[in-house]
Amino acid sequence: MKHMLQEILDHFEIKPVNEGTWTGQVFVGSNASLLDVTSPVNGQSIAKIKCTDRNAYDKIVEDAKTAFLDWRNVPAPKRGEVVRQFGDRLRAEKKFLGKLVAFEMGKSLQESYGEVQEMIDICDFAVGLSRQLYGLTMHSERPMHRMYEQWHPLGIVGIISAFNFPVAVWSWNSAIAWICGNVCIWKASEKTPLTALVCHKLMADVLEANNLPGAISSLVTGAKEVGEWMSADKHIPLISATGSVRMGQAVAQEVAKRFGKSLLELGGNNAMIITENADLNIAIPATYFGAIGTSGQRCTSTRRLIVHETVIEQVIERLFHAYQQVKIGNPLDADTHMGPLVDEAAVKSYVSGIEECKQQGGKFLLEGGALQIDGLENGYYVKPSIALVDANLPVLQKELFAPLLYIISYKDLKEAIAIQNNVPQGLSSTIMTMHMQEAECFLSHNGSDCGIANVNIGTSGAEIGGAFGGEKETGGGRESGSDAWKNYMRRQTVTINYSNELPLSQGIRFEM
Ligand code: NAD
């Protein structure tokens, strides 16, 4: 597998600075410390990455500020053209980049290709959007006055991303931020820096080919300390941070102290309600994919299944059957459903989550836990698990980032919706029903309190066309499609007087 990695990095012309230490072409400074990168596939160290030091960070910010002065003057549709070229590079490199995502992060090859496809899709979306950064016009209350609003870029957008979507989250933010006229500094997850180096290189090539400053897209490497520098940095008007609630709380407070803006995409604790009117031929595969996809490490993974008491036995039986089909193993094998968890700490947290659930009275219908795969003994593989639990169990309040599915029984829909909403997080939610009244109730203001509410599709796997994000502890941010672009711009209200008078608003008279 080392050979495969080498082949991919050679393909992208990412070269180590010293034997075994990588920065690609990223500026890291002379005091760079080293970060050890391990592949979850086989548990082996695959690279040592140099981390950005403080002096280098300050220089990167300075360069970004200068690059912004140029980039904001490039017309938006022309900025879209640059993003189109980046999307084309991604199209050409989908296979290579997808493999690297699978190897470095551990998600299945199918899902890894899907992640790169999301990057391509958001580039396409951003290209179209680059001609649609519309502002409203208003009728002024004063004669011969015109009012309208316009949108200007913010400056530097700082992007802090999580390991589980190591490349897509950056592109959701950066593609939109760029066409809006911003420059971006990306702090990728310390668990997935190689994929970040490759993405950075691809965009750097595109900028160079267009004679544009490289600092329109910068990458900083390292652990949370680098993210903390960004959060506290008054030169970065917007921090878009994706990760745990704990991280979001720290970032939000730091950014608020300097009156910066933050866009937060944090943990989820997503539920699917299966009513007595559900089509189980849809509900069962949706649950299966939602619970074990990315080994339960999606922010939108299905964690809680709230099932009507009349169909619960059937649901359990069919899910049990579906779970027998799960293929766990090397994510680089095309037919693997479930690769490893990201690291050893994730396996430990899963195992202790199972224990905690048992201690609170959870009844395990399917025993999960750590798993050894022949030939990949040091990889971080686990078996998925299913537990039947009471709605009031404290474990239900937490996001366990692993493939543990809780099943809860309910009697009436009002109760099911109350159970669903009774958690601190509010990202994704689903109802499985063929009954129009049940679906509409779930979608109404009396229904789901989440940022995403689905009918007859699972909780995971959002399309880029919609605004993505969640309520409550999920952070309230919206990224990607719809009008989420407004988060990356500042609104300016303009009033023009084309008369020879100076009428004041609200009819105020101020005689001189
Ligand atoms: P994490 O919070 O440990 O790390 C995420 C990023 O934040 C990393 O780059 C990390 O270095 C940085 N970071 C950590 N603490 C920081 C601090 N105090 N200041 C600045 N930066 C800091 O998360 P993770 O384990 O990589 O990812 C899993 C979590 O991300 C889960 O909770 C998952 O639900 C969430 N997630 C949410 C979404 C969403 O869109 N809502 C998408 C993907 C992942």
From TrEMBL:
Which UniProt keywords are present, listed alphabetically? Answer: NAD, Oxidoreductase
Query: What Enzyme Commission number(s) apply to this enzyme?
Result: 1.2.1.3
EC class of the enzyme, as a word? oxidoreductase
Please give the PROSITE patterns that the UniProt record associates with this protein.
ALDEHYDE_DEHYDR_GLU
Q: Which GO terms describe its molecular function?
A: aldehyde dehydrogenase (NAD+) activity
Aldehyde dehydrogenase domain location is 30-494
Q: Which family does it belong to?
A: Belongs to the aldehyde dehydrogenase family.
Q: What is this protein called?
A: aldehyde dehydrogenase (NAD(+))
